[in-house]
Amino acid sequence: MASRKTSSEINNLFAHDTNSGFKYLPQYAKYLLENQAEAFTIAQLDVARETKLPLLNHLDINEDELTSILLKNTDELLNACIENTTSRYIELYIKKWLDQQSFSFISKQISIEDISLLSFIQRNAFRQFISGFTKDAVLTRNILTEADLFITEIETKFIKTFFELIKPSPTSPNNHTLHFQLKQANEVIKHTEWQYQFMINEIEDYAIILLDKEGFIQNWNKGAQKIKGYTAQEIIGKNFRLFYRQEDRDKNLPESLLKEATQKGKAQHEGWRLRKGGSAFWGYTVITALHDNEGNIIGFTKVTRNLTERKFTEDTLKEYAEKIEKHNEELQRINKELDSFAYMASHDLQEPLRKIRTFSNIILSREKENFSPEAANYFDRIILSVNRMQTLIDSLLNYSRAGTAQMVLEPTDLNILIQDVKKDLSEVIWEKRAVIVYNQLPTLKVHRLQFHQLFSNLIENAIKYSHSDVNPEIKIETVNFFNKDEKEFIRITVEDNGIGFEQQYAADIFKLFQRLHGKSEYSGTGIGLAICKKIVENHNGTITAVGQPGKGSTFIIEMPLDNNNTEAEV
Hints:
By secondary structure, this protein is α+β, with helices and mostly antiparallel strands. Helices cover 55% and strands 16% of the residues. A five-stranded mixed sheet has the order 7-9-10-12-11.
């Protein structure tokens, strides 16, 4: 019968343990501990039951006690990963396991199958929650590789400890049985290594290569053959420099990447690489240094992903973006020229109009008695056309001013602003007996002059398109609301009881020079509502209209309230 190991003998099992120094696993473990600790534990318990873990048959504890023990083990496991003290965790965990169990329990109720299945269960748990932590394929690979290494180390040392404990004395009658168990353990370890190697070899989306210290290729997976075109027989033993273009080799890029990985543990690079035959692909490469127990470099892993399609898409989008930027710059230049032209033309056009009006008035005042009624009518029509032209030029000038230079936004009391508008329109309001109704309006951060123009146009428009036998009534209301993105807006409505319009023309009325009624019926230039639209858009808002023929119109303005800038570029 084998005897229980002494403390000193157990310590010798861990004499060469060192800190694993994982780079990626700690952050993932922290995420699991803070967000998924209980789910991580339950996932392991569920798989243990599905795989019929033999050890569960020998645990005489209830469900709550088992879950409590596993939660504590999860806490210890993940904290060891976070603190990067995994080797120390393995040592303490195995010692605690030995202290808590009798030798008879270990030898009769713990089997090699338990140890292998427990390792599988932990690997599965680490993989199950990785998608909630990151979607990045390279980071996922790095994390799970370190988790596999960590669990493999636990598995190997558990098996080593197990067989050290049951190592028979020279007189032991169970030598044949123990020899079989040792052989079984060796097969488990080989199977685990085979599974890991098989997984690496079968990956096709990544070229996973093992390099020696000088960069010569030691192994070759399916992904490498798919991406780079070489078979394993063609490439193993050659230097990885041949994957780089001549200009990169001249700059010693391959050597500098190995040097960086040696110094920093890892090197990353993105650029053009060569396939068999000389064709190029855009690759993202991560080179990771491999160390022995003494910390010496023994080689490198090189993982490459083909990102040619992404590179093509990015280059295409970049080209489109540059074209759009140039197009926008050209449009801005043209718009500035048009604004300048409209402004100057408006001023230049007014001079001949003034002369036409002046000379026409002089002729009428001096020679009217000598005119025939028909000639006098012609002169009246000339003056009327001049006045209409003057109004049109003034409107164009206002439209041009509504979208030029910078807007200085300032807190503006809409109640005071409406009072100022009413003063400006006092004559037409009095003439039409118009009534403007509004409750307490808010203070908004707006461009004061533009908003004065906005309400002036809307109120004047409501008065102009009123019934001849009904006094115009204009109602102004505001309400705050939140859009689907939980962004606060204000809605301003200007409602009238005028002649209205067909709803099918709701978008047309905001177009430049668009008129739904003839000049003989209602005066106007068809620019006023276009100016309103431009002003509202200058404030990042929208304006729409709802109309019913004979019953009136409602203009609806919606603007965001979270504009904290004091200046806005138009």
